[in-house]
Amino acid sequence: MSMNTQGRPTGIGTLGTSASGSALLPDEPLLFEIGDTEHSGVDLPEVELTSNRLGGFGRKRKLDLAGLTEPEAMRHYVRLSRLNHSIDSGMYPLGSCTMKHNPRLNEKMARLPGFSDIHPLQPVSTVQGALELMNELSHWLMTLTNTAAVALSPKAGAHGELLGMMAIKAAQEAKGEAHRTVVLVPESAHGTNPATAAFLGYTVKPVPAKADGTVDVEAVKAALSPEVAAIMLTNPNTCGLFEPQVIEIARAVHEAGAFFYCDGANFNAIMGVVRPGDLGIDAMHINLHKTFSTPHGGGGPGAGPVVLSEALAPFAPVPFVRKGANGLELVEHVEDQALGRVTAFHGQMGMYVRALTYMLSHGADGLAQAAEDAVLNANYIKARLQDVFSVPFPDYPTMHEALFDDSFLKGTGVTTLDFAKAMIDEGFHPMTMYFPLVVHGAMLVEPTESESKQTLDRFCDVMAELANDAKAGNTERFTAAPLKAPRRRLDETRAARQPVLKWEKPVELPKAAE
Ligand SMILES: *Cc1c(COP(=O)(O)O)cnc(C)c1O
Prior knowledge:
This protein is 33% helix and 10% strand.
């Protein structure tokens, strides 16, 4: 792009509107390729620096940042945002992730200056409203789960798992039972469960699932021993099923002197309907960014508060909010506290505001209805597609996720991955593929309560049409997909293992002699 000496665009360069290709599918260059390091994006008079007060710490080399005008920078980011599927642009049936609509009321509340413009080191007397919000959110989380305490600060589900298991470890040590070094994890568990246990030095002992997709209480009893510190059980489980023997499992675990960690990432299916405390759980993380609609994806901020039973409450980390003589106070030090803090400051304030807004705007009855609608939507999809797709566990009604497997693709030459890529061309984010691992070629669909019947019908029509096309031998539509996305198929492993995170200035090759 041509610019004047102060970096103002002077004409329509190649990058003036969008980079190349069609306006809606831009091949977006980097900021460094749009602008250049020789120009500034703003009109500033030249300053003559005679002296400064930086004491010799002044920058010696140029900063080498690309100079862009505000519209150029803004358009770059807006164009980038359009390259990705998002819950704001279409249905996102990614199982286990609860990609539900984030009501705009949540955003409005999170942007109130009393929540968004405060600093964690401000005197508590000046942030009473924020503390009250944290207190109120804690109250709702404990009430919905019937538990004795909550730690708000973990920043994701996996982080909450780590905290919950640290509390269990501390509780076992306090009982003089540090020799308990085994954690039971059902085979259908999310990968974060065994990873958490292993990270804390536990030996993971898998518990096999029954043919119907649920955890066998007899298998749990057989695996329990004086070495077992805890079980990590997901309920509803990752096959989309409510564990029918969960109370019996909890009883057996407690009788054996172990704790019951529940992976509560699937709380969306039962919030307001079932209180996990009544099922005998000792610790459970709640993904505010799933169940309570706060935005997530792409590594965005999450929040994974952990509720704790009476037995584990004394091991809750700091900080927490408490009523004091002069209003609410933040308890940041407790004598002999086992865990201390697990995050800098207090956690994700913006997510707390969004989650509480979601709770208050729904009310207790509204939350229960949201859970029931999520379950209804998943069962609707299962019922509509069960003759087209294959259903691995037909015996139970499903909870908030419909699980299919890829046996309907057998002999078609179309793989599960091909099928997922073809969904992109139809305007849907693919469902979760190849998870849970207990089902070969799993396809996990989670519509959430925020989709209308029209959207569900369109989704089912498209899925059925795709499945029938695959069976009819039209393989190319699948193996070549996605055709209507900015990129074809990526080497995802390489992208994850060898990401290119740094822009290097291209080396100027000497011009050939004319
Ligand atoms: C999402 C999820 C997790 C992990 O939560 P993060 O916030 O992604 O760390 C754990 N278990 C289950 C079942 C999940 O769906």
